[in-house]
Design a protein that fits this description.
The chain has about 290 residues and is an alpha/beta fold. About 45% of the residues lie in helices and about 15% in strands. The protein is globular, with a radius of gyration of 21 Å. The C terminus is likely disordered. It binds S-adenosylmethionine.
Length: about 290
Amino acid sequence: MDLLLPKGTEILLRDLIQERTGMLYDDDKESVLLDKLAPLVIDRGFHSFLDYYYLLKYDESSNAEWTSVINAISVQETFFWRELDQIRALVDVLIPEWVKNHRLEPLRIWCSACATGEEPLSVAMAIAEAGWFDRIPIKIRATDLSSSALTKARQGLYKERSFRNLPIELRHKFFAKEGNAWRVDPALHARVRWDTANLIDRADVARFAAVPFILCRNVFIYFSKETIRRVVRQLAEFIQPPGYLLVGVSESLLKISTDFELTDVGNAFVYRRAKIQAQTVEKTRFSFGAKGQE
Ligand SMILES: C[S@@+](CC[C@H](N)C(=O)[O-])C[C@H]1O[C@@H](n2cnc3c(N)ncnc32)[C@H](O)[C@@H]1O
């Protein structure tokens, strides 16, 4: 069926979707966005993208429709042992350092765009291999915006594609064959708690980000610079000392934010919460003073 696309509708949809999810399908990718939305528009019985826009924008019962939109447009590509150097840096350097200074506290880690779960389960495998689960309480929270990704993550059943980087001995240690897939060891799976969270929603970030280690990898590639700056600012606001943020290897924050500083740990680059400048504190004090005098 040919759907109507009144002039400017693709921009309206693009902007609305960016506002709600952070994901930006800019100039050259608008046709990709329309291709992904077209089946949803048809399913709803509409003949025009504009009607679908009105539904998303103004219909108060459109929450379920948004779930479908997010599932249709999010890219959930991920695999075990992806960008391993950072996970090694976390487990071999940052966790031991943290444990030295926080003996009585549970260690908390947030994987904030976990897709179908391979990333938090890789963190859990690396921690298990290093023996940390036997020594300290560790809580791993994994969240994503997409409900379909989280459903798969909760199932814990993975196909061959997910294993392209994982050494075979670890596959045999932590997974059991089930039909044409592999089921993750329930004990390892239970190390991770799964939830929905939107990185551009301040309340969601506040709920999960008060931890010393946050992974936010391979999601900023879908956001605009302005959205990244906003998300990073919120992460910086809530993250706990020492405040390490791990982003994907192709995602540099250097020209976007000064809230975190790039640092070299082991063989990996990670970001660390920047110290609040004395000058900034002075400025804040001054503006409070000024306000008090109004
Ligand atoms: C390419 S996957 C990255 C998975 C994993 N972090 C990795 O590096 O392998 C990107 C994920 O970001 C999620 N995502 C997109 N926008 C999001 C948002 N606003 N909040 C939370 N997750 C989001 C998508 O649903 C998708 O699962």
